[in-house]
Write a structure and sequence with these properties.
Layout lengths: L5 H14 L6 E16 L8 E13 L4 E20 L2 E23 L6 E19 L13 H4 L3 E12 L4 E10 L12 E12 L1
Length: 207
């Protein structure tokens, strides 16, 4: 079976959406910030969720009375937690926290069933890895935490789908809840198919 190229598929989808924009589109710009509960989908290790922050800007194009197209560029903290046993204390499980900082760029189609207020949104998202770190509870002071080379193990680009619901609280403020489904593995190693999963809650303001 021929392998699907997720990168090309998502790029083609974004171009098709942009190409359908009206010649005289109405644009609005704003900012957003919020919290994310993140983890990864992996088969070889149990893990738990990690809380992170997100913040950035949004640009919305009005397509009709029922549809908007919204592009965003925002910082997002991703990651997860798992357990590890240290050689200095193999009787206790220590928290091992993996953190990644991404610059996320979703392109979302927003549908307003009643023409205003509550909306449903969905679309593709591209993420660019800015930095990564891992922190082990009880790790000896002075010892590098990245001795296993985790920074070099991550892929630079991440691709996924986003879906959620939200509401315009008035003509300017909005709130939304989203789920992020990673489509590509964050790891370079083919045997490690670790894909991002995240719930996001954010508040925003349009200018």
């Amino acid at each position: 079976m021929k392998k699907v190229n997720v990168k090309r598929m998502m790029a083609a989808l974004c171009l098709c959406i942009i190409a359908t924009l009206p010649a005289r589109s109405q644009w609005r710009f704003g900012v957003k910030a919020g919290l994310a509960s993140t983890t990864v989908n992996m088969k070889d290790c149990e893990n738990s969720r990690k809380l992170g922050l997100l913040a950035g800007g949004v640009a919305t194009c009005t397509l009709s009375s029922a549809f908007d197209l919204q592009g965003e560029l925002f910082y997002a903290n991703r990651g997860f937690k798992t357990d590890i046993y240290l050689e200095t204390d193999d009787t206790k499980a220590h928290d091992w926290t993996f953190s990644q900082s991404y610059l996320n760029m979703p392109l979302l189609l927003k549908w307003f069933p009643t023409g205003h207020g509550v909306y449903v949104e969905a679309g593709p998202q591209v993420g660019y890895l800015l930095d990564s770190d891992n922190d082990i509870e009880g790790w000896p002071k002075g010892e590098p935490r990245d001795e296993l080379g985790w920074k070099k193990a991550y892929r630079r680009w991440d691709f996924g789908l986003v879906g959620g619901i939200g509401a315009m609280l008035n003509n300017r403020a909005f709130v939304d809840v989203r789920y992020n489904l990673g489509l590509t593995s964050m790891m370079k190693e083919p045997a490690l198919s670790w894909k991002h999963r995240a719930w996001e809650l954010s508040l925003g303001f349009m200018f």
